[in-house]
Amino acid sequence: MTVAISRRPPVRLHLTNVAGAGASQLLQSLLPALERDPGVVVERIELPDRGKLADYRSSSPTTVAEVYRRRLPNALSRMLECTWLAGRFDGESPLLVLGDLPLRCRGPQTVFVQTPNLLKPARARFGADGIKYWISRTLFRLGMDRVRAFIVQTDVMRDALERSYPGVAGRVHVIAQPVPTWLLHSGLKRHARVRAPGQALDLIYPAAGYPHKNHALLSRLEAGAGWPVEQLVLTLDAAAHPAPGLSWVQCRGFLSPQAMIAAYSQVDALLFLSKDESYGFPLVEAMFVGLPIVCPDLPYARTLCGDHAFYFDPDQPESLRQALLALQSRLEQGWWPDWRDRLAGMPPDWETVARRMLAVTCAEEAAKP
């Protein structure tokens, strides 16, 4: 009698361009879970040469983790990496690209798309950012036919990606993610306001200074317009302060996980200003903790928050003021949000996310005898 021996398929991970704060934070939770998955063997990890992931150390002695060194300016280096130099990533084993752009290499490839900047814009963008995003969209279009599957985080992002690139229709899989590991294991749950009744709002907006994060809206607020806010903490450096004339806006710089947990344990609500997100991790974090949310009335936010958030027009200061006044009024009445229905569909942990992503990545290999 012959006993069949199960074979754990090898997988390669590519994240050479993941250096931003949000994407890096996600992968700091996801990478260890991918390596721990019992169904695969991670044989190689291509790491960035900057950011927190440059120092990532594999948990397996058999995994080769190598930093991809860039000798040219990042934009030019990235363009070459995705096209003429992509042959170095040829391989028979499945390649999971965690940095948005396809590679013109041979072998089974899956791409995890985390940025909305790849979507076709409603109107032309000019300047350095406009050119950069146009190049990224061109690289995506050139390489998309080499990709077996794409992974995104929401139905809204899948639909938008398929509208921007009709050729990817039917190959886009939706896999949501939970909060980062540091918050998942914190035990923090809020059920009421910490501050005494009658006080103005204590808010936080954790976001990097990218244009789509819409910090510029704060520069349009009038200091004497009756804002019901005592403090709004931004995770920007003081030099990037978007509204120096507003005494209640404070720039604290990047906050460590411990500092974020401390902030979430005290603030009255999350304020989110972003005009464009593929997911919106701070929204998920706030729901997980149990915080009220004030955010733009846009599809990505509606998809995550449903009817429980306080919505505003991200281009209208007065709309934001009215949303904050509505929140303050509800808090004075003893209201507090219940996000359980919105969190019901979220994966319980990062092991679940890793298993689902690897199932997509290794779909054909799993079917082989």
Automatic annotation (TrEMBL):
- Specify whether Transferase is a keyword of the entry: yes
Q: Which Gene3D superfamilies match?
A: Glycogen Phosphorylase B
What Gene Ontology terms describe what this protein does at the molecular function level?
glycosyltransferase activity
Q: Give the Pfam families listed for this entry.
A: Glyco_trans_1_4
Q: What domain of life does the native source organism fall in?
A: Bacteria
Q: Which GO BP terms apply?
A: lipopolysaccharide biosynthetic process
Keywords per UniProt? Transferase
According to UniProt, the name of this protein is: Glycosyltransferase
Q: Which species?
A: Sphaerotilus sulfidivorans
